[in-house]
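pls read this protein.

:::
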Amino acid sequence: MTRAEQRKFLKANAGIIVQDMLLQFKDVPAEWDGHELRCWLQERFDSNASMSCIRRDPRSRRARSYRNTMLCNPNL
């Protein structure tokens, strides 16, 4: 995947999640503030990531490589 394709993928996935959440926004309790909204956002992104082979097979070589990259690169 090229850098441009990576950017397009991130924008599209994040956009779909946010658009879907905004459609459901009418059901969000009025008393929710940033704490609840952050948790809701995190749960939606986790749900989206659950289809990844890294999440499905956390002991795979690819998953180990991903975790190593995340540990070694504090900018991510």
In short: The mean pLDDT is 96. Helices lie at 3-23, 34-49, 53-56, 61-72. The first helix runs from residue 3 to 23.
